[in-house]
Amino acid sequence: MIYIKDFILNFWILSSQMAPYLLLGFIIAGILRAYISDALIEQHLWSNTLTGIIKASLLGIPLPLCSCGVIPVATSLYKQGASRGATVSFLISTPQTGADNLMITWSFFGPFFAIYRICVSFVSGILGGVLVSNFVTGVSPSIPVNRSIPRSVPRWKAFKKTALIDLPRDIGKALLVGLIIGAFISMLLSPGQLDGTMSNWTGMLLALIIGLPLYVCATGSVPIAAALVGAGLSPGAALVFLMTGPATNITTIATITVTLGKRTALIYLATISAIALLSGLLFDWFLSSVNNLTVLPDFHKTDVSVLGGTSAIFLFSLLMANILFRNKAKLECCKKEPVVKKEDKKMPKRYKKIKIYIDGMQCEGCANSIERVIRGIKEVHEVDVNFDSSSAKIKAKCKSSVLIKAIEDLGYEARI
């Protein structure tokens, strides 16, 4: 019984400490989504110069895209003509950070660690992009696209959808898993219990080996890393885990290999691994050289602030609401297709309705990426990709095989 009580207490403490910062991160991410459009991202990813690579890394840092979400975005941009160097820079920087993730990092590890993590992500993105642009030859394939696509929704709708629906829905499950694991670690390991059990190098290598093949959501990984550091793991080792876990996994590596080539995939892995280890060592060295610098608050305190408790209740209510509405949407999607409305019959005869079922979508970011690619094909009139029903409804005058190929090129399975 005492273990259950300790687990609940640790879970509540971790949640209340994280919740205010995460909600603020949702707001910042919504604002970024409203003002950083797909067209703006496209505009800065065509150049293979150092300036273009730097812009790609800068754009990737604040965007709230996890590994499963950034892969289809980057792949679609590359297939539409973005340079390899800028694409890799975007691929490396984006999943490591994000507005919501950075705010959680700030809540657990403090401002110094969060800013340091931004700098490391920025540098690793630039280095990876420069290496690819210099050592990988060839031009990116391109498909016929409409580059003058207007903003599909007003800014306030984009903000609301991102902050209140997409992000809570996408990270909710991984966040809860991370909090549960973090609470278990805090319950089983007393403060400092891991001190002296392994050297900094050993801890970092272990974090690298675990993080490279394993997919860990950037947001959900922070409570786990924080609990381990609270038990005595080196902050540098936690940084290695936070860099490699979200940015690399077997699926990501396979997709990059197929899309960008084996040499690009090797540079991608080597860059992330080398920068993660070097930055972890540098961070631990700096901490040992500076007195009175704390990067981790006390996780074993028992008091919770009013702001933290209120924010945690609101956060879990938001997550629960999205789960309920999503289940409701799934039930509605299973109902019989509605009768074609009269206004639909006014559509020009050259356009035909196509419904495609898509397997492999992990989040709303995946659905948005697929919709963006299909919408960019000139022969497409309308498109609506629904994550809940794993399907896309399209009005187009091109063959369905063209649409299926465009979706499969992003790494998904598609069928009529």
Would you give an account of this structure?
The chain contains 17 helices and 4 strands. It is mainly α. It has 2 domains: 2-309, no CATH class; 342-415, 2-Layer Sandwich (Alpha-Beta Plaits). A 4-stranded antiparallel beta sheet has the order 2-3-1-4. Helix 1 crosses helix 6 (99-109). The longest helix is centred in the N-terminal third of the chain and has 34 residues, at 2-35. It is globular and about 70 Å long.
Q: Span from first to last CA?
A: 53 Å
Estimate the global geometry from the Cα principal axes: globular
SS element count, helices: 17
Integer count of domains = 2
**Mean pLDDT metric:** 80
In helices, the fraction of residues equals 55-70%
Structural class: mainly alpha
Helix and strand sequence: HHHHHHHHHHHHHHHEHEEHE
Number of strands: 4
In the predicted model, the low-confidence regions spanning at least 5 consecutive residues are: 145-150, 336-345
Largest sheet: number of strands, sense, barrel closure: 4 strands, antiparallel
Rg over C-alpha atoms, rounded to the nearest angstrom = 22 Å
Strand order of the largest sheet: 2-3-1-4
Residues in β-strands, percent: 5-15%
